[in-house]
Design a protein that fits this description.
Layout lengths: L1 E6 L7 H14 L3 E5 L2 H7 L2 E3 L27 H13 L4 E6 L1 H12 L3 E6 L15 H22 L1 E7 L6 H9 L4 E3 L7 H13 L5 E6 L5 H12 L2 E6 L11 H20 L4 E6 L2 E6 H6 L6 H10 L1
Parallel strand pairs: 1-2, 1-4, 4-5, 5-10, 6-8, 6-9, 7-8
Antiparallel strand pairs: 2-3, 10-11
The chain binds 6-O-phosphono-beta-D-fructofuranose (F6P).
Length: 317
């Protein structure tokens, strides 16, 4: 087969490990494999390069993506996608492996509807794809967040402060929930918990009165202005309070072994599926088994909040 591989949307640690696995698995199956640069934009512009095994040496442990990535909102227009299909036809490429999040999956689905054999691989720090238990990049971002929160705990405790830490995740609370549990946060606020500001202020005030020296609040992005919230905490609770937005640092760095392993498994599995003639699907991991789901179905699935973890938080935070 002649297969293209691209990364699209926000980058995630482990994308390079995924590219490496796809390229090497394809070459081992006697396929020709083409790296497509800068996501769907590069696809439309015909930025293709045939890859050898050696082209993906020394990238397994590197953050970012050697292919580059982009967000291309114009890809929703059929006329734009037709340009992409033409480029693929011109290069005789029949199949495409697209690494990214749900925006990437939507692009892959539309191309599939236009006759291209596509496979989606979940590469995003957000862990917001319902068809897989884990996305590539989540483990590394979680590690990064935990390292930062541990450090913030040191200084909060020394100064007897409340520390509010905003983590990424788009509209998915997993980074906040998992990092909050792992770092013993007193409060974890996500889309799933909802945000009751008055209750938080009152709880912090009671904690302060009870003599607790410091407090850690981990909150998902997009819920509130954390700098403003820090001011309100100071006024109401008696704690000095500082807010930190962890931001893009969560997207970088060497992938964890968990992300590298997931990347290797899903990259190789995607090539296998193409050989079996299974396309228009996205791959994932469920109960530690690789699996696939039609992309259309995956996009319609809603991620369920992890009840067990939420109950645990109520008991031990
Ligand atoms: O999807 C990954 C992510 O990092 C989200 O957590 C965040 O909301 C978003 O991308 C930021 O996107 P951009 O790189 O376009 O600012």
């Amino acid at each position: 087969m002649r297969i293209g591989v691209l990364t699209s949307g926000g980058d995630a640690p482990g994308m390079n490990a995924t590219i490496r696995a796809v390229v090497r698995a394809a070459i081992a199956s006697n396929d020709k494999i083409f790296g497509i640069f800068d996501g769907y934009r590069g696809l439309v512009e015909g930025k293709f390069q045939e890859f050898s095994r050696k082209d993906v040496s020394e990238i397994l442990n590197k953050g970012g993506t050697i292919l580059g990535t982009a967000r291309l909102p114009e890809f929703k227009y059929e006329t734009v996608r037709q340009l992409a299909v033409k480029q693929l036809q011109k290069n005789d490429i029949e199949a495409l492996i697209c690494i990214g999040g749900d925006g990437t999956y939507t692009g892959a689905l539309r191309l599939h509807e236009m006759g291209i054999k596509t496979i989606g691989i979940p590469g995003t720090i957000d862990n917001d794809i319902a068809s897989t238990d884990l996305t590539i990049g989540f483990s590394t971002a979680l590690n990064t967040a935990c390292e930062a929160i541990d450090k913030l705990r040191d200084t909060s405790s020394s100064h007897q402060r409340c520390s509010i830490i905003e983590v990424m995740g788009r509209y998915c609370g997993d980074l906040a929930l998992y990092s909050g549990i792992c770092c013993g946060a007193e409060y974890i606020i996500t889309n799933d918990t909802g945000f009751d500001k008055q209750k938080l202020l009152e709880d912090l005030k009671q904690n302060r009165l009870a003599g607790r020296r410091h407090a850690i609040v981990v909150i998902s992005e997009h819920l509130t202005d954390v700098y403003q919230l820090a001011k309100e905490v100071e006024q109401y609770s008696g704690y000095e309070c500082r807010a930190t937005i962890l931001g893009y640092v969560q997207r970088g760095g060497a992938p964890t072994p968990e992300d590298r392993l997931l990347a290797a498994r899903l990259g190789k599995y995607s090539v296998d599926l193409l050989h079996e003639g299974i396309t228009g699907v996205c791959v994932g991991i469920r109960k530690n088994q690789v699996c696939y789901t039609p992309i259309e179905e995956a996009l319609a699935m809603k991620r369920k909040p992890n009840e067990e973890l939420f109950k645990l938080v109520q008991k031990i935070s």
